[in-house]
Specification:
This protein is mainly α and 226 residues long. The protein contains nine helices and no strands. The protein is flat and about 70 Å long.
């Protein structure tokens, strides 16, 4: 067992960078989608609220893997058909990394939407009205009043979303992305010890979630002290 870990362990660990990179890319997209989605849900415009509600309801009801395969295969086919018909581009290839990041970011953007929306609604409306009454610009009161309160309010839910997102990146291995899960599967097949390397992958993901949890808890304490 030790010899197998020495031989194939580095192969599994080589996917760590891709897994972390995919997680960070996806969470950045999720935050962007979440902010836009929350703005739509909180809008005074009925159409905008409808779009935001449709986004969160539809995306949370679709299986992650199905949507990922649709983006990877269907999205690439659609883009190339559009390019062929219009002549705007010759050929576009969606990489497994790009498909995984876009899909996971889009999916978790729906969860982030509710996270940011709930945090914003928890802020007393009187504070914003007071800021407007003294002539404070929207950008100023968003930075000085709203944002410092949204972070600690949203952080518990954000932490949960991030930890689930981190584990969801394992689905990208089905697209051929050489992440931790893909490499663990290949090492298990080659060595004929699949359980050993799946257990190794389990330990790596557990370590990443523990590090993330500690880091986000520290961030929460920092904002809580302000």
């Amino acid at each position: 067992m030790v010899e197998l870990l020495k031989e194939y362990g580095p192969m599994v660990l080589s996917g760590l960078g891709l897994t972390v990179g995919l997680s960070l890319a996806a969470v950045c997209l999720a935050i962007m989608f979440g902010i836009v989605g929350a703005a739509l849900r909180l809008s005074n415009n009925a159409v905008a609220r409808g779009i935001g509600r449709t986004y969160t309801t539809l995306i949370r009801g679709l299986p992650d893997l199905v949507l990922m395969l649709l983006v990877f295969f269907g999205g690439q086919m659609l883009l190339n058909k559009i390019g062929s018909a219009t002549g705007w581009w010759k050929y576009i290839e969606i990489s497994p990394f790009m498909a995984g990041a876009i899909t996971i970011g889009f999916i978790f953007g729906a969860y982030m939407t509710e996270t940011f929306r709930g945090a914003f609604l928890s802020i007393p409306l009187g504070q914003i009205e007071a800021a407007k009454a003294i002539g404070m610009a929207p950008r100023t009161y968003m930075i000085r009043i709203v944002w410092p309160q949204i972070v600690p309010l949203a952080l518990p839910s954000f932490t949960n979303n991030w930890l689930v997102l981190l584990k969801t990146t394992a689905l990208a291995s089905i697209l051929g992305l050489h992440d931790i899960m893909y490499n663990a599967h290949q090492a298990g097949r080659t060595s004929q010890e699949p359980f050993l390397f799946l257990l190794m992958a389990f330990c790596i993901y557990l370590g990443l979630t523990m590090i993330s949890d500690v880091g986000l808890r520290a961030l929460g304490k920092r904002y809580a002290l302000k």
